[in-house]
Amino acid sequence: GNNFSIVAVSEGALSLKDAAELAELEEKKRQAKDDKKLKKAGAALTTFHAGQATSTLRLSHELESLTGLESRVTILGHLQRGGTPTAADRILATRLGTACAEAIHDKRYGCMVAVKGESTRLVPLAEVVGKRKHVPPDHPWVRAALETGACLGNRLP
Fold first, then answer.
1. Is 1 exposed, middle or buried (0-12, 13-18, 19+ CB in 10 A)?
2. Residue 10, pLDDT above cutoff 90
3. Among 93, 112, 94, which Cα is nearest to 103's?
C-alpha cells in the first residue's frame, strides 16, 4: 500500500555532470598533439572509466539524498546468480528490449512495454501509475519472497 517509484538505469548511463566530463576528456584526447599529451589524456580517460564502476551506487545515494526515500540497487548479474536464464527468460528479455527500443525510436515516451498473450504492447504510464492491482498474501510469489527474506513493506526487519 505504500507509494514507490522505480528508476531504471541502463549500464553505461551517465549523469549530466559525468557526461560533460567524459566529453571534455575525449576532446582533450582528440586534440592531443604529441605522445606525452596523448598518454596523459588516455590515462585520464582510464581513471574516469574506472570511477564509473561505482556509478550505480553513487546514483542510488544521490537519489536518496534528493528524495529522502530509500533507494535500492539491483544488478542483473546478481539476479542471474540464482541460475542460468532459461530460453524463455532470454526470449522474453529480447521481446521486451526490442519493443522498448522501437518505442524510443518512434519517440513514444511515457509508456511501459507489456506482454499480453503472444504480443507486446505499449501501455501509457497514466493507465498504471497510482492504480492498485492486488496480489493475495497467500500467492506463491508472495510466500516465496517472504521466505527468502524480502521486505514487502508489511513488516519491519
1. exposed
2. no
3. 112
pTM confidence score: 0.40
3-state helix, strand, coil in the chain (%, to 5): 55, 10, 40
Quickly tell me which residue has 542471474 as its cell.
80
99-144 per-position pLDDT tens digit: 999 999 999 999 999 998 889 999 999 998 888 888 898 999 888 8
Name the packing angle between helices 16-31 and 35-51 (round to 10°): 160
Neighbours of 99 (CB within 10 A): 19
Residue type, 93: A
Question: Whole-angstrom Cα distance, residue 22 to residue 14?
Answer: 9
Contact 86, 76 (CB under 8 A): no
Distance CA 61, CA 68 (A): 10
Answer yes or no: are the C-beta atoms of 25 and 44 closer than 8 Å.
yes
Cα–Cα dist 71/16, whole Å? 20
Averaged pLDDT of the chain: 81
